[in-house]
Amino acid sequence: MTEWDQERRARAVLTCICEPGHLKLARLVASHGAVATVDALRRNGDESAWARRAKMTDEDVLVQRAGQAQLRFVIPGDTEWPVQLDDLAHRAEIQGLGGLPVGLWAAGPLSVAEFAPRSVAVVGARAATRYGEAVTSDLVGGLISDGYTVVSGGAYGIDAAAHRAALASGGRTVGVYAGGLDEAYPRGNLRLFEELKAEHLVVSEVAPGVRVSRSAFLARNRLIAALTIGTVVVEAAARSGARNTASWANELGRAVMAVPGPVFSGMSTGCHRLIRDGQATLVADVDDIRAQLAPLGVGPLLAERGPDRLLDDVEPELLAVREAMPARGGISTSDLAVKCGHPVPRILGALAELEVLGLVGQDQTGAWRLKRPTSAVV
Amino acid sequence: MTEWDQERRARAVLTCICEPGHLKLARLVASHGAVATVDALRRNGDESAWARRAKMTDEDVLVQRAGQAQLRFVIPGDTEWPVQLDDLAHRAEIQGLGGLPVGLWAAGPLSVAEFAPRSVAVVGARAATRYGEAVTSDLVGGLISDGYTVVSGGAYGIDAAAHRAALASGGRTVGVYAGGLDEAYPRGNLRLFEELKAEHLVVSEVAPGVRVSRSAFLARNRLIAALTIGTVVVEAAARSGARNTASWANELGRAVMAVPGPVFSGMSTGCHRLIRDGQATLVADVDDIRAQLAPLGVGPLLAERGPDRLLDDVEPELLAVREAMPARGGISTSDLAVKCGHPVPRILGALAELEVLGLVGQDQTGAWRLKRPTSAVV
User: In CATH, what class is B83-293?
Assistant: First the structure.
């Protein structure tokens, strides 16, 4: 059960009244805090759209509505808040959108903080071809057997094919939505939405009751990129939302991959341009994806290793990441990436392995801290 | 008619007795000259394979045989010798092969020196799919209408499809063969070979009568790369001769391009790996190829420009290439590329345009020299 203290209530109101990914919103919250921001909007005299909506919004109704829809609301500082999302606080905007979300609405048994460091976005065209759906099925099957969680939107085409392939492989899959989680969008994917919500996880940046808009889709794409360590675009037309997700993944230093296809297929044009222009690496099979996600040799063998491994056995690259961490206090993933000179996905992979080895851990704020190895030999 | 002086006879003998692309051959000829090399091989005491063959080879028979097959023999210094081939003299080897050919056997109405600065290699798998053949047809049609000459080998599959598409488009196409030009290899492409020989051009580094070998194919691939300004690989298996041609094109600083295809097609695997590993740029249509071949804006509009254009109208990049040329004397393409810091294809494109503008020309040795513009204004 979510504890609805003042801070959480204020943030929930903001997800109800402000367009997601609005840079002004992120700046107000960063400078003044959520409570002061809502108070200011409710003060008489402000006649902006946000102010009008703030005055109209009843927090108790919102909390009740969330409860009915079985939603929880995750905010920075929560155990479930994924530290890698903080990369959004420091990065550039795309098309006027950006910034840290004020909170994440979520429903389902999976934890956001837990899946995110080992997850891959599989996205693509709504008007996917049978070829695209077949490739999606193959790649997702491989990713699931490597232990990755699949992340996608809720659309027809590649998004739905990715979720269905993950479910068929017995894996974990997360839907990130542009609208409120009280109803499915599009309606034709209702059963899929309900299955993800009941068995896996659905996530949104906006409050229940908020409807989708074009800019909400673009803001949502930044969440898909930020919540994963890499994005695979399976099919995309020349103009495609999937290319926007790829742009976000590039902005955030994530691995960006695209699948080639027949040059006569308009649904592969966007992928080919991403590859041609150096915005994505070509991946033709799951081995290619593995190579992009685990350049430090972090892979499916992870689970077989115990927490008592000695530093002597740890790969030199992992040790280098560990040595870049401060002796006292925490460090963010992005700061560590800068310090090590590696891209964020590589650092996240290394941190995931170091965590399994019992050598690092995340504190309450999501920062990474050194742990002493449990073996007495070190 | 070829003038069979002593130098040309000696070089012809060498193409008869030495494996093509043998680095030792290129070094001997560069250090001692062809005449002294043949003399040394014929001297008693040398029992090497080359020496035995040298003693057995009757130059008059060779010249007669070439005449019967209507072959000419082009050597460095000839007007028909393509200056860009000299790049092979200064570049690294691949799999123990390399070096400048001692001469080129040729038959057909096209001139080697004339087609090479504006030609594109289109190569690929023998076991091409219908997809690969369809893509070849499309791309070649576009290249021909841009005025490029197509270059390929003589094999089944993509090679034959490239030649046939060029012929169907009314364009020019050149076959570069691994064996002697007195007979077609493979025999199944006899009619294509005869058509190229009669109407276009066939080229080989080895004398008539010399049979193909595996290393001859690899040596031939370096000629295809060197004789063109860019190579397009349409389909290639994971292990493929076309990938070898792409490696040569990279070695020589040419544009290297590969066409994507369905990830389930083994005939696209080689292309995908070239792209994935950064050895080739993805090209999905002829516009993509144009962008790779003409980064200085040299394109199909060339023919519309007159030789009297003023320097004021010349693009800054072209002027920069012109300004890098010595006031007196000539300069090779590769030296100019180094001086300008641009890849060779880009320099060749610029030189082609400067030549049309009447601002540069090639001398007898193939070196590039400045010309005064014909307009009095400059």
Answer: alpha beta
